């Protein structure tokens, strides 16, 4: 005689609430990134590059003197390329070389932004390509938003559970 036996534990029905929470944290910009460029032209490639390097050195020194931190200045792009000049019959009559050097200056004192841009232009920068404003401690703001969103979701769950005569216990998933 063979017999088999099976035992199953009855699983209690899971009681759950599903809620969501959201939050928005705003912060004032405390950092600016100034993107500027120096463009030079010459019939000789070495002259275009040499003139550009000198002007860019002057610009770098000027923005530092105006309050920029030297460790937060970086070259973004450097190009030298020919520009052919044609006559009205489509024949090339001459060639120039254009040199473009772009720099990023990160400013942590926003009140210095305008003075730094003015200094750059006065020293020879002939393009301010853009100025981007941002927040330096984004992680702190993201964490605060997460705390607020979680608290909002918990408040919703507590209201719903309380209305049903229950309480929020044993959180299963978040």
Description:
The protein is of the alpha+beta class. It is 33% helix and 29% strand. It is built from 3 helices and 4 strands. Strands 2-3-1-4 form a 4-stranded antiparallel beta sheet. Helix 1 packs antiparallel against helix 2. The radius of gyration is 32 Å and the shape is elongated.
Low-confidence stretches: none
Strand content: 25-35%
Q: Please work out how many helical segments DSSP would assign.
A: 3
**What order do the strands of the largest sheet run in, or round the barrel if closed?**
2-3-1-4
**What would the principal axes of the Cα set say about the shape?**
elongated
| Radius of gyration from CA coordinates | 32 Å
- C-alpha termini separation: 52 Å
Could you estimate the helical fraction of the residues in percent? 25-40%
Number of strands: 4
The major sheet is characterized as: 4 strands, antiparallel
- Mean of residue pLDDT values: 91
Order of helices and strands: EHEEHEH
* Class computed from helices, strands and strand pairing: alpha+beta
Topology:
Blueprint: E1 31-42, H1 45-65, E2 73-86, E3 92-107, H2 113-122, E4 127-134, H3 138-163
Helix pairs in contact: 1-2
Summed up:
The chain is an alpha+beta fold and 174 residues long. It is 33% helix and 29% strand. It has helices spanning 45-65, 113-122, 138-163, and strands at residues 31-42, 73-86, 92-107, 127-134.
């Amino acid at each position: 005689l063979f017999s088999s036996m099976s035992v199953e534990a009855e699983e209690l029905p899971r009681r759950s609430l599903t809620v969501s929470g959201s939050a928005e944290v705003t912060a004032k910009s405390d950092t600016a990134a100034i993107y500027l460029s120096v463009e030079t032209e010459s019939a000789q490639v070495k002259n275009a590059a040499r003139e550009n390097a000198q002007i860019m050195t002057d610009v770098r020194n000027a923005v530092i003197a105006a309050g920029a931190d030297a460790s937060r200045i970086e070259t973004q792009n450097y190009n030298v390329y020919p520009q052919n000049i044609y006559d009205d019959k489509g024949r090339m009559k001459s060639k120039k070389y254009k040199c473009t050097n772009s720099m990023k200056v990160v400013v942590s004192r926003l009140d210095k932004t305008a003075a730094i841009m003015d200094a750059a232009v006065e020293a020879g920068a002939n393009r301010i390509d853009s100025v981007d404003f941002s927040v330096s401690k984004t992680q702190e703001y993201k964490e605060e938003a997460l705390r607020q969103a979680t608290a909002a979701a918990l408040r919703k769950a507590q209201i719903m559970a309380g209305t049903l005569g229950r309480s929020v216990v044993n959180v299963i998933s978040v």
